[in-house]
Amino acid sequence: MQNTSKDSEGGLDLSTEIAASARMVIIQVLIAIFLFVNSLMILTFFKKAAFFTNTRYIFFAHALVCDSIFLALSDALLVMSYSRAPMTGGLCILLVSILGILSVATPLTLTAMSLERYVAICMPLRHSELSTPMRAIYSILLIQALSSVNRMIIMSILFSAVSLRFYTNPLICSTEQMIVFPWQGHISSALSQLYFLVMSLVIAFTYVKILAASRAASSERKTSTNKGLRTVILHGFQLLLCLIQFVCPLIESIVMKINFNLFMELRYFDYIFFILAPRCLSPLVYGLRDKDFMVVLKYYGLFRFSKKVVLFNMDKPNPKWRKKITCTPVG
Fold first, then answer.
1. How far apart are CA 237 and CA 325, in angstroms?
2. Which helix (H) or strand (E) holds 88?
3. Which of 90, 93, 175, 226 lies at 20 to 30 Å from 323 by C-alpha?
């Protein structure tokens, strides 16, 4: 009977290990696809100087870069955690800090993009004055500064609480390793909720204003206004998924105390839907839905087999700004 019990436990452990390995393979395939698409879109942005003068595309490129770095680093930590590979505490602090900053930078960028659409649709006469490439760069610097506040507070508490050995001792890196006091996690959670409350209010404000402009718009501007309205709705959905991401650790910790197998299932679900999914919507919202960007993307995605690319200045509807450009090989 004891042998039978051991065999069944061994079979259960083996099946659990196989299931975990299969999930890891699925995650690696998804991340590889998303990183390839993001990389192609980043390449497309930097290949055409016309995109550098448009605030919307600058914010879009910033979101793509943040999402790509986040996906690559989070996947690296996931693989190391799965294989139980240790790293020094100092390196873990660096990686977790970068991930924490990027996790806030993406929704802040979405908020800035919604505000840009609000200015373009509701304040068209002042759009060229307010929405300039230089102001977009300043906005990105502000986004990075605001994203760092939470992480700087958490790291300051950590630095004052741990000994010097922590930075050189090997450990299995995770965000939980950075929390040394329960109230430290409460501060982080409160700041994150404050950020997302403000961002939700801003996106709701832009939605209401663009909706009012859509109803009052003439038939000529109706299409552009409705497109901006759909974009803000998608940004709101992305923000909701990002917000749920910060609630997931609390739910996971409760479930882990009840049932460890259910905890593993829940963590896999959360990673796919609330960490990967929000970062994969940006290419859909701006890249694949944008006709101008898609034409250039197809050119480089098809290894330059397409001979011509049409670029538009979206903020200047005058037909004289519509140019047909023959693409020549770059580099």
1. 36
2. strand 87-88
3. 226
